[in-house]
Predict the 3D structure of the following.
Amino acid sequence: MEKLSVSWSSPSNIALVKYWGKIPHQIPCNPSVSFTLKNSLTIMDVEAEKTNAGEIQVDFFFEGKINEKFKSKIVKFLESERERFDWITNYKLTIKSENTFPHSSGIASSASSMSALCLSLLSLDEKITGVKTQTEDFYKEASDLSRRASGSAGRSVYPYLVSWGEIDSVVGSSNLFAAPVNKADIHPMFHDYCDSIMIVDAAEKSVSSRAGHSLMDSHPFRELRYKRAHENLEKLLSAMKEGKMEDFISIVEEDALMLHALMMTSTPSFILLKPMSLLLIEKIRDYRAKTNIPVCFTIDAGPNIHLLYPKAHETAVKEWLAMEFKDLRIIHDETGPGPVKIKD
């Protein structure tokens, strides 16, 4: 039997302006922008064996063990993409996936895993059909496909700083795929950035992102949020181009807190922050005020705090973290180069 295989590693990302609220087909209600991470990766090996079975067949292994829950997500996604991959019912896929970071650690595993899957599918598609895509078009389609699989996964296919969603200041921006922000346009103070993830609670979050997005459909502050997110993204990119650190910090922290304020004021409401989350925010702001080191925080839909700071201050910040938070689990990451094809 004919067997083909491909391997990709793809990173997670951390949003600076959050995507929260969508319409059908994973179309965002507001634009977002994120740092691509370097060390928080999904490494995925996909083998396709010719069967001519006429149905989608998938075996999925996560860190060496069969994982039926994630397999069902993949099968559902592949069913929705049968038209794009017309060979998918004639091959059995064996997918082996592992993460370089712990599950439920506040790092977006769906972004890294679904982008790794979509990159692998497109590489297999090239092998099976014999049609090679230009590099730029390959990544654009990978971003579109990843978005359909898991929203913000569309941002993980590009390096460093990535925007997704229609916005005036980004030429060629789209709700269908993400676009890399040209590093040459960004002030050098933002070129190399660290993300130290402070683990408040490693348990799986009590409310899924899907449920959270759906609560925006009837949220009283819905339109105000979408307007503000557009403004925040424009102002953030401007601050990063002009080297305005105080503006960057203000916008990033406001947007993170707004995300959680939206959760607290939805119907039904929910609170994902823990007392320790608020204590860490207080300590970060206190450290910034006392040292003038430009640390700031962002928070995804969970209790864990992402501490962001320029790599130039890495030594001082890590010394403070080690001294101040001896008993807290911290995962250190930084901005990175995007996905890598490991095996073709």
Observations:
- The chain has a mean pLDDT of 96.
- The chain has eight helices and 14 strands.
- The chain has two domains: 3-183, 189-334.
- Residues 288 and 295 are 6 Å apart (CA to CA).
